[in-house]
Every structure is written in C-alpha cells, then in structure tokens.
Amino acid sequence: xxxxxxxxxxxxxxxxxxxxxxxxxxxxxxxxxxxxxxxxxxxxxxxxxxxxxxxxxxxxxxxxxxxxxxxxxxxxxxxxxxxxxxxxxxxxxxxxxxxxxxxxxxxxxxxxxxxxxxxxxxxxxxxxxxxxxxxxxxxxxx
Length: 142
Hints:
It is built from six helices and five strands; from the N terminus they run H-E-H-E-H-E-H-E-H-E-H. It is α/β, with parallel strands linked by helices.
C-alpha cells in the first residue's frame, strides 16, 4: 500500500507545477534544481511582475517566493494573488527572518515561512503539505 501511494504521489508531482519567484539568480537556479530533484515541474521567475504576466500563473499549484524583492515583495505578491482570487498555496523564503513579517504572513494564509539557506527536508515537507492542504499554515520558520 505504501509503495502504491508513493507511485501515485510521484505521478501526481510530475504534473504539479511549482513556481519560484526570487530576484537572486543563483539562488533561484539552485531552488529550481532542488525542487525538480524532488520530482516536481518547476518554472522560475526573477520578479513578481514576471510571474504575474506568465501563462503559468493559472496552473501553478504552489508558489515559492522570496520575501525581499524589488518591486513587489513575496508578501505583497501573496496578498495580490489572494485579492485577485488565486488560491495558490505560498511558501515564503527569506535571508532576513523577521518575526513580525512571519506572523503577519502566516495570518494572511502563507503555508510556510522559511529562512535561507532552506533546509531541503523542511522545504519538501512544506511542499507536500501545501499541495495536500492548501492555505493551512504549518510552519513558522526553520
């Protein structure tokens, strides 16, 4: 039964699009590779504006966004998506953890708020949880 569940989960994840929005190109590329290694389809964007203009927006099953970006922050992007009617489970990552920002983001429905460098196991757990129960906060920080 466990093997069958794993196979079904792997098959589902191959069709599941995870979008990454981060202005730091090396970090964005390494995050894209990591999430691909976890078995997901990945698209990566250098800014919130690029993601919002993308044809991938409606098919995104989970969003991984940096908190601090020029233009629109990850927190602002999440709020914008919610206000526009997109219920995309969102994981925020930051190199500058801030308890006030974290608490507000989790209250606003962000699924996880993780500190860079992101622990691979925490990220995988957040992705699985986000895809199972969209919109339910599970993680304050790592």
